[in-house]
């Protein structure tokens, strides 16, 4: 029996097993498909993220509104929750300002 025939026999056995036990747990492939469909259901409306009110005007770049919109859109498309996206933005801004101040104070 060649390798192709063995694979077909194994698949047929798996199908027969599934038909005998329809209430069995889903196969790994079914789980992957569910995850992919969950991703497709991610919101596509960009999140309305905002910068912290306590930032100095000198710390905010001129095109910050465009950057906020792009990040909000990317986070929504990636399926990141809005509250998590806001926290990620806050951490990024804090780190960027800290690094900028560290390099300019030397």
Verbal overview:
The protein has 106 residues and is mainly alpha-helical. It is 65% helix and 0% strand. It folds into two domains: 1-41, no CATH class; 44-106, no CATH class. It has helices at 3-20, 28-40, 64-78, 82-104. The chain starts with a helix and ends with a helix. 4% of the residues are buried. Residues 2-9 have low confidence and may be disordered. The longest helix is centred in the last third of the chain and has 23 residues, at 82-104. It is built from four helices and no strands. The radius of gyration is 25 Å and the shape is elongated.
SSE blueprint and pairings:
Elements: H1 3-20, H2 28-40, H3 64-78, H4 82-104
Number of domains: 2
Q: Write the element-wise H/E pattern from the N-terminal end onward.
A: HHHH
The whole-number mean of residue pLDDT values reads 76
What share of the residues lie within helices? Answer: 55-70%
Please state roughly what percent of the residues sit in beta strands, choosing from under 5%, 5-15%, 15-25%, 25-35%, 35-45% or over 45%.
under 5%
Q: Which structural class is indicated by helix and strand composition? A: mainly alpha
Total of DSSP H or I helical runs spanning 4+ residues: 4
**Assembly type:** single chain
What's the overall geometry?
Answer: elongated
What is the terminal-to-terminal distance?
Answer: 74 Å
Largest sheet, strands/sense/barrel: none
- Count of DSSP E strands? 0
Q: What are the low-pLDDT stretches, counting only 5+ consecutive residues below 50?
A: 2-9
The radius of gyration is: 25 Å
């Amino acid at each position: 029996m060649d390798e192709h025939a063995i694979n077909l026999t194994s698949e047929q056995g798996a199908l027969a097993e599934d038909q005998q036990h329809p209430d069995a747990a889903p196969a790994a492939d079914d789980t992957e498909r569910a995850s992919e469909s969950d991703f497709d259901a991610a919101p596509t409306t960009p999140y309305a993220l905002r910068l912290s009110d306590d930032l100095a005007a000198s710390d905010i770049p001129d095109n910050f509104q465009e950057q906020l919109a792009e990040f909000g859109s990317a986070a929504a498309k990636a399926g990141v929750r809005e509250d998590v996206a806001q926290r990620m933005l806050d951490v990024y801004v804090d780190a960027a300002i800290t690094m900028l101040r560290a390099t300019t104070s030397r």
